[in-house]
Amino acid sequence: MEALNQAILDARSRYTALNPxxxxxxxxxxxxxxxxxxxxxxxYDPFPLTMVGxxxxxxxxxxxxxxxxxxxxxxxxxxxxxxxIIKSAINxxxxxxxxxxxxxxxxxxxxxLLCDRFASIDKIRFCNSGTEANLMALTTSRxxxxxxxxxxxxxxxxxxxxxxxxxxxxxxxxxxxxxxxxNDTDGTAELIDQIGDELAAVIIEPxxxxxxxxxxxxxxxxxxxxxxxxxxxxxIFDEVKTARLGAAGVQGMAGIEPDMTTLGKFIxxxxxxxxxxxSAEIMDRFNPRLKGALAHPGTFNNNVCSxxxxxxxxxxxxxxxxxxxxxxxxxxxxxxxxDLFVAKDVAMYANGLGSMIALHFSREVTKTPSDxxxxxxxxxxxxxxxMLLEGVSVCGRGxxxxxxxxxxxxxxKARDALEKFIDRYKPLIEQILQA
Length: 435
Ligand SMILES: Cc1ncc(COP(=O)(O)O)c(C=O)c1O
Fold this sequence. Notes:
Aspartate Aminotransferase, domain 2, 7-stranded mixed sheet, 16 strands, binds pyridoxal-5'-phosphate
């Protein structure tokens, strides 16, 4: 590890020398924010870059460097930084008044687009974030079933208060969670049988995102569909990230209909939102015309700018055909990375699916989070720093999200940066993984 620590220190000192203004801005922010930070995932050592602008698939920092943006706002940035259709939709909404305090056409348009697309969503409601969408879906499942237990998965991320990365977070809502292992079909089936009629819901990301962009086996999802039906629990697909992976998310690809689906991230064109939906039977519990209906208020549930941007984004840009094409193009890129790793004979793998990629230090696809080695985790900060130094911005944990404005120039830049990284560090990678 000594050699790795030294390499990381060396990369950080080159980075620090290149970014004095970001360093000073970070220091300054410590006056008001703990550690200068108001969004934990955006912190990395020695200090995060302050960004000042973006255009298409590129982003500019305070010290005047330009990056290809593979952080992609952790998948919400699907449309890039300056899509004209989205900008124009927001401007129109702004000019027409943006604090209506009433229903508007925009939320109805977006609702129609999403319900028409996802077979599992007859009816939908909007909220402000993916976290909120999952809280609402889980609470709905507990009320509808009259049960308390929720089965989730180790290393899943469903929001800041429903988080199981490396174990349950101290911040989690006090729901009665039971944790199973992702892609462990037999173990999870057994657990569902044991919990039986106390189980309100199973919640799953069909690609385990923050946990390493690990794809769920189809048989695993099919088992969840069958078992939840058997015990009378709801199956909730958290497609906050994965909805982008095709015309109707992973559920569309796998041909599996969950009872409820949660959405967020990109569906408002990059503006804040969340949504939860499901069968008419479940969602009609929210019908305010009915006596005893569930109440779901929220000042910004239908905020005009998000709804207008979402309607334009999903209606005019990310049509089902465009989503399918983008998936195919993204898979070509992901496979090209894996071809590069094989050609270089290095233990690296572009895990994930379509435009959701996580770089792992492994020769094979990662199928469950416990397969991610300590060495793999230890190498990530080095990869992250070196990619930034090459003008390619990826997430600190090695995630890369593709966006629609990316072209071959952007993708080649990422491939070239990875090639340079491998040429420089292959012996170190081998040493760390063997330790
Ligand atoms: C799968 C998944 N669900 C839920 C969330 C929470 O969404 P938000 O950050 O909008 O609250 C995230 C955010 O990264 C996510 O990846």
